[in-house]
Amino acid sequence: MRTILLSILAALFLAVPSAAAHTYLDTTNPEDGAVVTEPLQSIELTYAGRIEAGSTFNVISSNGEEIETVSMDLVDGVLTGTFETPLPNDDYTVEWNSISADGHPLSGQFSFTVDAPVAEEPAEEEVTEENEEQAEVDETVENNVAETTAADNEETSNDTLLYIVGALLLLIILVSIFTIARRKNTK
User: Fold this and answer.
1) Nearest alpha-carbon partner for 86 in 54, 46, 40
2) Are the beta carbons of 59 and 72 closer than 8 angstroms?
């Protein structure tokens, strides 16, 4: 009986180190529940042991849209996903799936919020009397240029019409002279 108890006890001691050797997610950046107040362009998952290639995570916004990563790198138990631009202010959930070095699948999720200052739009230029006067001068100049261009185009049109009418009159005169001369020759 004593041998059986010692065997069970020895088996438990041998099983505990192998159970403790399983990899687990140790830390995340940002942390679960964190409110990020600076632009965030990457997320890091740090594991307590080695994980295999093919480990990944998805970032999902509050409206259920998956945010695409431009790269997913795994270096020394740290899985880093990088985004093309910083994440916009919103609540996010990260769903991760990893494979430990011993082949056990690992999965879970954590959440965080991005609440970074938003770059302000440039203030519209204040309208002053000087700006209004300059706008009126600019408008007057534009109107004068448009009127001059229209007058030039009209004058060019009139000249072209005059040339066409003149050419038609000359043609009629030549045809008339030719016709009269031919009649005289036939008599």
Assistant:
1) 40
2) no
User: Three-class SS string for 124-173?
Assistant: CCCCCHHHHHHHHHHHHHHHHHHHHHHHHHHHHHHHHHHHHHHHHHHHHH
Query: String of b and e for 53-86 (b: at least 16 CB within 10 Å)?
Result: eebbbebbeeeeeebebeeeebeebebbbebeee
DSSP state, residue 113: E
- Largest Cα separation within the chain, whole Å, is 156
- pTM value surpassing 0.70: no
pLDDT digit of tens for each residue in the chain (187 aa)?
A: 555 433 444 444 444 444 445 688 999 999 999 999 999 999 999 998 888 888 999 999 999 999 999 999 999 889 999 999 999 999 999 999 998 888 889 899 999 999 998 876 655 555 566 667 766 767 765 766 566 665 566 556 667 777 788 888 888 998 888 888 888 877 6
Which of 81, 79, 53 is closest to 68 using CA atoms?
Answer: 81
3-class secondary structure, 84: coil
Cα dihedral 152, 158, 159, 164, rounded to 10, equals 150
Query: Phi-psi category of 76—alpha, beta or left, where left has phi over 0 and alpha has psi -120 to 50?
Result: left
Q: What is the pLDDT of residues 29-54, one digit of tens each?
A: 999 999 999 999 999 999 988 888 88
